[in-house]
Design a protein that fits this description.
By secondary structure, this protein is mostly helical. The protein has two domains: about 50 residues, no CATH class; about 40 residues.
Length: about 120
Amino acid sequence: MRMSPTRLATYSDRGKVALAAGAIGYRAAQYMTAEQITTALDYAVSPAQIEEAFRLFEFTPKMLAPGHELVHVSIAGRHRTKLSIEGMNRGLELPDLCAALLGKVVDDDLFAAVLDG
């Protein structure tokens, strides 16, 4: 059975996306847009291919709210566990709980109370 060039190209595109799936998923979890992922992968896949993969797997990546940035923070396992439990009790995911806590410290100028207290 021979495939048309268009159909062959479609399979080739899916193959490229499949090979890059781990890298795409990792970067999507870092709140990167399809365009940012394309750049990070040195244009191995296009934004359209990434968005098609998202649709194919019924995946809707989270996007950062305007004016927000992703900050990587290292914390002790026991602290992460307590934060996760608190988040579950409040119906929040861990990143959302941490963002709310840090935002409250900043907004209410609680640095001294938290750090010195």
